[in-house]
Amino acid sequence: MGIIVSTVLGLLIFGYAAWMMVKFFQTSRKGKCAACAIKESCGQSDCRCTDQSKDASI
Question: What domain of life does the UniProt record list for this protein's source (predicted)?
């Protein structure tokens, strides 16, 4: 019984890690602006995706 639980748990962990790697490579292949979290509200011509809270404190 214990080996079955360990195997299932191991498969879940490695499956999740593989899925996260696939998602990472898909977004990194799109380029800087396509993968940016604020691309809809970004109005910068040089496509510099920065955190707006950091810019406000300067």
Answer: Bacteria
